[in-house]
Every structure is written in structure tokens, then in C-alpha cells.
Amino acid sequence: MRALDWNREGRDWPQRENTRFVDTSGLKWRIVQAGAGPTVLLLHGTGASAHSWRGIIALLGADFTVLAPDLPGHGFTRGRPPKGLSLEGISGALEALLCELENHPALIVGHSAGAAIALDLASRRRPDLPVIGFSPALMPFPGLAARLFPALAKMLFVNPFVPRIFAAMARAPGEAERFLVRSTGSRIDAEGLRCYATLLGDSRHCEGALGMMANWNLAALAERLPAIRNPALLVHGGNDTAIPLASVTEACALLPHGTLEMAIGLGHLAHEEDPAGAAERIRAFARAHAILPAGGIAA
Which of 79, 87, 94, 106 has the least C-beta neighbours within 10 A? Predict the structure, then answer.
């Protein structure tokens, strides 16, 4: 299997016209930058790419400058952060990217593991920087899984054959869609399925996703949540089969300024199933925190 190539697989990729590539230490980022206004930084979850925000980017462009990178190890971004694919490593790499772009987001939005990155990054930048987490993965897996899952991910990550095997399985006709329905409880559009099939069929992308999971330490983040004073809106899909509602409720209770909203009838990929609803939640939260004026577009 050839590595993903922007001029081959990327030639009909969502938001190609708004894509640019930016070099920082050890990384060549693929980012989407579109629209005008205060910057909203969009961070995808494990195994995805910036394509997961495809429906939202166009809807937010009139209100915001939208910045959406492929995270390290994912999509068309190349290289590894100096501190690896840990939460600290990815947050630090994003800091370097924002510095290179001379950009200071007014709002950070993350999905799943991207919500953990959003909270970590925002809390390190300033305590009043608002955060939205869609289907947020903020708490360790319960019970025995908390100990077994990181160890299993590490074991799979160090085996060079595992990403190739997983990618080969994902390339079977219809397997990407079946995998997404089983693992997320979501049903998304044909363009999204095509992108996920391309990504999951690439062994380098699978290796990056496994590496991220192997280096994730949600227990350390959970201990920090009571000290994170950033305004945080957590949005959980009622049909989410990946993240238990109890986990999101517990995380929200630990956050001093956390609020939980339910996306009834939607799964783990709620922001892809209903991009218009997700975009309106983002606008409403931005208005509530004076990022956008009460009437709409920022001055």
C-alpha cells in the first residue's frame, strides 16, 4: 500500500481549495484555513483527520477564521512531535504551529480525543479561553479496561504488522462503514465514508492512530480537570457507542465551568451527522462568551 499522497488521494479531498502546508520542528502540517473573523481551532479525534469538520467549516466561515489541522500521525500531516504522540506532545506541537502562524484562537473545539487536546491546550494558553468538546474522551476507561487498554495499545503499536493488517481489513468493500457504525453509533454521508475508507486503509495513518492511543494518559488529565477553569461545553450524542454518558457526566462535574448538552439521536460522530446543529452550538457558545456579538457576526 502506497503512503497517502496529497496529489493523488488528496486531489478530491474536502476543503482542498483551502488547504495549506506549514513546517514546524519535526512536522509538515496539512491545515485547512478558511473564512474571516475570530479564529476557531478545530481538532479532530483519533483515527480521523480535518475532513471530519467538512460540513462545519463552510457553515462557520462567515463568522470565524476556521483553522483545522490534520493532527500528527494522521491524514496528510507528516512527521512526529518532539515529545511524541502523547497529549503533552501534541499540545506542544500545536503551540508551535500557532506560533508559526502567529494565530491566537478565540475558541478551541475538539472531537473525542481532540476534546482532551483542546482542554489541555486552552488551559495552558489562558484560563478564560473557551472550549467545546463534541463526544469528549476525557476520562480513563472504567475498571480493568483502564489498565488493559493502554497496555494493549502499546503492544499493538510496537508490532509493525498490526497497522498493515488493520489497513488491509479496512480496505475490504463496505468494511469502513460497518466499522464506523459498530464503533460510533453514527451514520454519516457518502463523502465522509469515502474519506474514512481512504484513511483507515492506509497503514501509516493506522500506525499514527495506534501510537496516539498507546501514549494517551487520561488518568493524568482527569486529575487536572478540577484545576482547569476554562469555560467548557461538552456535547454528548445520545446514541454514542464509543464514550459512555457516565464518563462525560463525571468529567463535566469535575470541570469548575463545565456544561453538558445532549445531542439526541446522534452518535459519536454527531458533528458529522448534523453539522448545522454543531455549527449553531459553536456560534451560540461564542456569543455567550462575547467572541461573537449577540446579533451574529463579530465586528
Answer: 79
